[in-house]
Amino acid sequence: MNSQEKSWKEISPAGVCWKPSTQFLTGDWKTYKPVRDLAKCTRCLLCVIFCPDGAIHWKPEMNDIEFDYNFCKGCGICANECPTKAIEMKLE
Amino acid sequence: MKSVVKQEVLALNGDEAVAYAAKQSDVDVVAAYPITPQTIMVERFSEYVANGEVETQFICTESEHSALTACLAASVTGARAFTASASAGLALMHEMLFVTSGCRAPVVMAIANRALSAPLNIHGDHSDTMAQRDSGWIQIYVENAQEAYDSVIQAFRITENPEVMLPAIVGLDGFTLSHTLENVRVLPDDAVKKFVGTRQFTTVLNHEGKPVPFRLDPENPTTMGPIALPNYYFEFKRQQEEAMKNALKVISEVNDEYASISGRKYGDGLIDPYHIEDAEIAIVCLGSTAGTVKSVVDELRAEGVKAGLLRLRTFRPFPVKGIVKTLENVKAVAVMDRSMSFGANGGPVFQEVRHALYDSSHSPYIVNYIYGLGGRDTNMTQIRGIYNELQQTLKKGRVENLVNYVGLRE
Fold first, then answer.
1. Is the pTM of this model over 0.90?
2. Residues in Cβ contact with A4 at an 8 Å cutoff, skipping those fewer than 6 apart
3. Which of B91-95, B225-229, B253-257, B329-333 has the lowest mean pLDDT?
4. Average pLDDT, chain B
5. C-alpha separations of B101 from B98, B161, B246 in Å
6. Does residue B384 belong to any structural domain of this protein?
7. B325 within domain boundaries
8. Inter-chain contact B205–A13, Cβ cutoff 8 Å?
9. Which helix (H) or strand (E) holds B9?
10. In terms of domains, do B252 and B316 share one?
11. Rounded Cα gap, residues B350 and B370, in angstroms
12. Closest by Cβ to A8, choosing from B204, B226, B239
């Protein structure tokens, strides 16, 4: 157990969140990570729409997408939905 | 007591007394589903709503699971919520009982205690609430319709106390109390409204680290009870145990404060002993049976037998200290259970009373009597029989049968 974690006397009741979910990294839950073939990707952004965790971001300044591996749980929905099969799920 | 307020006497059955108490307690939301023998509570309350006698939002849900869910949702926004059920209805709420206590939502629920199927039985016993004893709810068992009325009012004060913040069940024996007419002294509306007051909120830190009132409020957003993994879940459960410990003190304080306006007091709020000081033999029981036991104690005392009664008013939190202290000079104890814990070598009240006495320097003979299942009547002759057997136990110096059944055909 992490010594940084609080005791039962220090935390709010009823599981009230004392920090935002952005500080609760869930990316380490995954077994497979999505890896993109840049040659096949058409930037259609379907993966951005389908990602159930909002872990694929559209970066207008780069004119490209970016996987946020801090929150990607490796569900593979993006790879399944990609019309050009540009995403492959690879064992981490 | 000087400050006791003038009270009207109404002819009410237990269910009506509960509905009347809820009516006076400034309840914001009632969500309920009818089930015998609780139905009258919901019927009466819906009449109050239809007549414009209350400002309560009344929600007719499609099931008890939804009724409690609606009450929980209302309660976490800061509303005062009340519901009522029995038997299979309470069983259907099972999942949400834990969510309600885990969210620390001070919902008050009256239960007209009834047997569980199968076989189907609509009559009184404690199987329904005893099956929910580990759900994190305070449990108060009342002796008569008057106490049902008083306890519902008190329950709002107990549950909403910032040191408690736990939901509570007020249990009244099905039919014996729920459907039996009694003279009930009721407080004036304004006295009850003043006693229950308005909900107070503790302060919690939200996800931005900002202190906000502990309620769901669009102006001060918080996220309540979404998930806790192995690194935190345990800590939240430990908090609930602490709240139960705090409830011991709060229930007693509310009992005293209520006595100062009503003139009615139920022991120390947790236990209600009768002729126990010099008793050699005693019965421990819950609910309306205590009335029958008291009549037998009176008879035995007139005959010179040192008999006593310890009625447990709260089963959760379990009043260990009071039980140990009260039974310290008693030589033989009979614990009465109106439910069974199949395969457990005795009913739940017996197990816990016996467990409480294990660390006591004093170790009386202690036996269990299972009685009254499915509404079977338990009369004075049978109670007298229990006291007689306690005397026999003392004479023989040993317990013949640890678990006994009252009024069962062998």
1. yes
2. none
3. B225-229
4. 97
5. 5, 14, 15
6. yes
7. yes
8. no
9. strand B8-12
10. no
11. 9
12. B239
Residues B280 and B258 in one domain: no
Give the whole-angstrom CA distance, residue A75 versus residue A58. 19
> Domain limits at B246?
8-201+232-262
The pair phi, psi for residue B192, each rounded to 5°, is -70, -45
Closest CA to B335 of B298, B290, B376: B290
Instruction: Report the topology of domain A32-91.
Output: Alpha-Beta Plaits (3.30.70)
Instruction: Check: CB of residue B314 under 8 Å from CB of residue B249.
Output: no
**Which positions in chain B touch A5 (Cβ < 8 Å)?**
231-232
Displacement of CA B194 from its chain's centroid (Å)? 23
Query: From CA B268, how far away is CA B324, in angstroms rounded?
Result: 14
Residue of A5, A12, A23, A29 to mutate, interface with B, max B Cβ within 10 Å: A12
Q: Looking at the structure, do residues B275 and B256 belong to the same domain, yes or no?
A: no
Q: Are strands B168-173 and B108-113 parallel, antiparallel or unpaired?
A: parallel
Asked if B246 contacts B164 with a C-beta cutoff of 8 angstroms, the reply is yes
- Give the three-state DSSP class for B142: coil
d(Cα B200, Cα B78) in Å, to the nearest integer?
Answer: 9
Query: Max alpha carbon distance in chain B (Å)?
Result: 71
ipTM of the complex: 0.89
Chain A residues close to B205, C-beta within 8 Å: 12, 16, 18
Helix (H) or strand (E) holding B139: strand B138-141
Q: Which residues of A touch B159 (CB under 8 A)?
A: none
Taking CB atoms and an 8 Å limit, are A14 and B104 in contact across chains? yes
Asked, for residue B84, whether it belongs to a domain, the answer is yes
Residue B267 sits at the vertex; the CA angle it makes with B13 and B311, to the nearest 5 degrees, is 70
Same-domain status, B65 and B105? yes
- Residue A45 Ramachandran class (φ > 0 left, ψ -120 to 50 alpha, else beta): left
Q: How open is the CA angle B15-B289-B267, to the nearest 5 degrees?
A: 85
Compute the average pLDDT of residues B31-38.
97
| Alpha-carbon radius of gyration of chain A | 17
Residues in chain B closer than 8 A to A8 (CB atoms): 234-236, 238-239, 242
Radius of gyration of chain B (CA): 21
What per-residue confidence (pLDDT) applies to A2? 57
Q: Find the length of chain B.
A: 410
CB-based contact A2:B229 (threshold 8 Å):
no
Interface residue of A8, A10, A21 to substitute, partner B, most B CBs within 10 Å: A8
- Nearest CA-CA partner of B86 in B47, B131, B56: B131
The answer to whether position B212 is within a domain reads: no
pLDDT score for A3 = 63
